[in-house]
């Protein structure tokens, strides 16, 4: 399982970079369009040229990974694992006995990471909370057919991951705009800095939204509701 996990992580990371740039291109172009007319054109042109170039490089890298012998080996291993999975003793236990504990562990990690967040906390802490919340959300959604009680935490985790995603988009967007501004000059650089400031405000607003809504979400991320 470790080998499969590592291979899938590499593939996801490679394609995730290209997808993230695609998302940021859309967000930053939309943000640039809201600037005053003279600034909007300059910021939009600089953002478009820079991120499209980055996206092309990322897509080439991703295509290279997918065509590599290592990736072919990963696909074969995935098929083998699906046809003849290696199971532990717990696989013989009733689902109702096993799934609540497994899901509760995932929920607990997401809950602890999120409840420790601070408005002025490190971006890395906020990013980690998002990653763990996404894992918990996908786990809850996956087991809902056999554990209907997981539907409620899945719904609340969807809201949480949406809010945390807005925080991350703001952080990444602010960083990209800063990079592009450093490579620009004059009014273009000034336009990008204005847009970057707006992204900074937006991600702080998203952080406040997470902290404001967390007391409503937290009670649904505990084990007790799963076994009622």
Sheet/helix structural class: mainly alpha
Strands, total number: 0
In this structure, how is the largest beta sheet organized?
A: none
Average pLDDT over all residues: 90
General form: flat
- Estimated helix fraction: over 70%
Spans of at least 5 consecutive residues with low confidence: none
Radius of gyration: 21 Å
Order of helices and strands: HHHHHHH
DSSP helical segment count: 7
Please give the alpha-carbon distance between the first and last residues.
Answer: 32 Å
User: How large is the share of residues in beta strands?
Assistant: under 5%
Give keywords.
228 residues, mainly alpha, 7 helices, flat
Structure description:
- This protein is mostly helical and 228 residues long.
- The protein is 80% helix and 0% strand.
- The protein has seven helices and no strands.
- It has helices spanning 2-33, 37-66, 69-83, 95-115, 123-143, 151-182, 186-217.
- Helix 1 crosses helix 3 (69-83), helix 4 (95-115) packs antiparallel against helix 5 and helix 6 packs antiparallel against helix 7.
- The model has no long low-confidence stretch (mean pLDDT 90).
């Amino acid at each position: 399982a470790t080998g499969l996990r590592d291979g899938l992580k590499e593939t996801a990371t490679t394609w995730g970079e290209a997808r993230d740039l695609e998302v940021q291109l859309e967000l930053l172009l939309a943000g640039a369009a809201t600037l005053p007319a003279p600034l909007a054109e300059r910021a939009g042109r600089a953002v478009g040229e820079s991120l499209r170039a980055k996206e092309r490089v990322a897509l080439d890298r991703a295509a290279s990974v997918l065509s590599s012998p290592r990736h072919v080996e990963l696909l074969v291993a995935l098929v083998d694992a699906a046809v003849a999975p290696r199971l532990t003793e717990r696989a013989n236990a009733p689902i109702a006995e096993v799934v609540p504990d497994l899901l509760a562990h995932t929920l607990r990690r997401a809950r602890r990471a999120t409840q420790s967040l601070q408005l002025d906390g490190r971006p890395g802490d906020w990013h980690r909370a998002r990653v763990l919340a996404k894992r918990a959300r996908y786990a809850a959604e996956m087991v809902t057919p056999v554990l209907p009680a997981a539907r409620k935490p899945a719904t609340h985790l969807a809201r949480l991951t949406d809010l945390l995603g807005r925080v991350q988009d703001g952080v990444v967007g602010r960083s990209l705009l800063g990079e592009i501004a450093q490579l620009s000059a004059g009014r273009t650089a000034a336009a990008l800095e204005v847009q970057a400031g707006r992204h900074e405000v937006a991600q702080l607003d998203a952080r406040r939204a997470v902290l404001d809504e967390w007391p409503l979400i937290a009670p649904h991320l505990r084990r007790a509701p799963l076994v009622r």
